[in-house]
Amino acid sequence: MKLWWHKVTHWEYWSVNVVYLPTFLLWMVYSIRFGSFHFYRFSNPGMANGGLYGDSKMAIYNRLPSSLYPKTILIRKGTKENIPALMNAKSLSFPLIVKPDMGCRGVNVQKVYSHSEIEMYAQKVKQDFLLQENIDYPHEIGLFYYRIPSDKSGKISGITVKQFLMVRGNGKSTLAVLLKEVPRYAMQIEKLRTQMNLEEVLAKDEERCLVPFGNHNRGTTFLNGKEWITNELEKTFASILDPIEGFNYGRLDIRFRSFEELEKGEYFSIIEWNGAKSEPTHIYDPKQSFWFGQREIFHHQKIMYQIVKQNRLKKNK
Known about the structure:
The chain is of the alpha+beta class and 317 residues long. It is built from 12 helices and 11 strands.
């Protein structure tokens, strides 16, 4: 199947402008009701612009206990930092993850293995960026969490199970050939050519993860993990997130060792935390329809509406 046709017939690849056009119209209605185009700021009063845009990832990390997120260093644009000294102070070693301090959808997230690669990255992104510990736990989920201000505790409204871009060798085919067998992976070939030798032949049954990032636009498959939402998991994250002043709505991307340990709040790391711009990414499960996606998006926007309404009333008292 031609890749362009695969994109047309699988809505998970449609432009965000198409997918969120109905939401844009809904936001026009909300803007009229609230008398402001900036109503979203009240979704998370403790985040810049509610976490819709202009929010620093470092500032958000700093609102968490340091044990819950990877060791991270903020590198300011245009500064001549002594990166080896900073890494030594944080006990960081290669490989590291680098990503923009302000960004979304996994754009310009990269793994680096040397100081020269960090320098090249700084020249490429031309903005503040983060040097971050590489968390090598094998699993990743996106966990959507919200708390209505009048409620005693928050709730998990969705979980996205992420399957990284993995290939299995047959002893004959090159990596490029193996990638072409799966349309989702074939879309990544040109990007991967600049990062690795795609003419390599893997041994029979050898498995390799080619993209260790849980990003949809890097070939990761998103699955609806609603069955992962348990009372114990909800209690664990309520104990972590409910005390954080000014946070009511968003998605956390979490790396972890096993689900049983995650339920208990053990052996996990919050690698990303988003506010008002958060998507309920479980909608991109290939088995789900476009209309399922629209219902879930609208459901979460209505939750945001209730949060904004109550937070505005609290401020005006």
